[in-house]
Amino acid sequence: MSHIVASSRPLRTVTFPKIAEYDQYLLPDQGWAPITFPPNDPVQESLKMLFRSSKTFFDLPLEEKDKYKTSFGSEEGWSKVEGEKEMITLRTIDNTPEQLKEAAERCWSLAGRYVNELLECVATSLDLPEEALCKFSTPCLSLDDVKRATMLRLFRYEVHEDKVVAEAHNDLGLLSLVMSDTPGLEVWDRSVQGWCDLERQCGKPIVMSGRQLQRLSNGHYGPGGHLVRSYGQSAWTETRNPLAIDGVSNPRYRYSIVFILRAHWPVPIDSDELSSEVTGKFTTPMKAITAKDLFFQIKKNHYNINANLEDRNEQRKNIDSLKKAQQERGEANEQPELQIEASG
């Protein structure tokens, strides 16, 4: 069923921090926007510090990294998808490798606060009090010994050939902040109904909205569809790599950090508290559910592009069966302009 509804009023004008004036419209219109950090910005510097620490971790022997594998797959701990990437997902400080602890803790704190500021602006644009949305995020702004839905995910992609290394997908959460050391992230441009190699064009970190924000905003902030492509050696034969990080970047790999802000699971959702003259009346009201309930409602309609290929294909079959059943019941797709049933 569609969750997009026409509002009686346009979005209120806001200024998203650290997004250039000419890019301000992109987050509500496209679900993504480049971030223009000022020189020596603490958030960007913390990301660079974490890049260097992540390279140290990924350079460890496989048997060392394997110690951080968990039963949660790509949702927590270290994992690898042959021929595509390896990653480590951080959810608590206790399960964070020693090589990453200091940098991850600082990056989580600074990136979390910044993304939370963006969420405050989203609420204001919807003519809602900041707390209407930030109550879902403020409990998630530090990396400590309490496991939350929010996460830091560090990637090392294989880039020796030209191919897609992360299928087209939407993030499941509220907002995601992405920074890479080599271009590869491509976003779905709704204005031309095609893919845009945004990292290669702008050479900046990117923020993207996710499925939870789509639901909590009654469809006014649609998710930013994206994929990751390896350009092979062409990424290094270009005259300049605008994303290169000293001490990290090399032709063999593409490193990427994603801070994924997800709604804190225990927080109750009441769509009446999220309604305004801008949002309009929710077409699918939410009552007596928590953010955790919403997350799993969304997740069941998506397969995980970070799972291994066998699990991914099995999830895809299950999604196809579910989609067929939904069509038989006359239910519409949530995002008709881009059919995506995958998540990161």
TrEMBL record:
Region (Disordered): 319-344
SUPFAM superfamilies (alphabetical): Clavaminate synthase-like
Residue ranges of domain Isopenicillin N synthase-like Fe(2+) 2OG dioxygenase in the record: 151-222
Top-rank lineage group of the source organism: Eukaryota
InterPro entries: IPNS-like_FE2OG_OXY, IPNS-like_sf, Iron_ascorbate_oxido_reductase
Basic and acidic residues biased stretches: 319-332
Any Pfam family hit: 2OG-FeII_Oxy
Gene3D superfamilies: B-lactam Antibiotic, Isopenicillin N Synthase, Chain (2.60.120.330)
Family (UniProt): Belongs to the iron/ascorbate-dependent oxidoreductase family.
The protein's name: Clavaminate synthase-like protein
Native species: Rhizodiscina lignyota
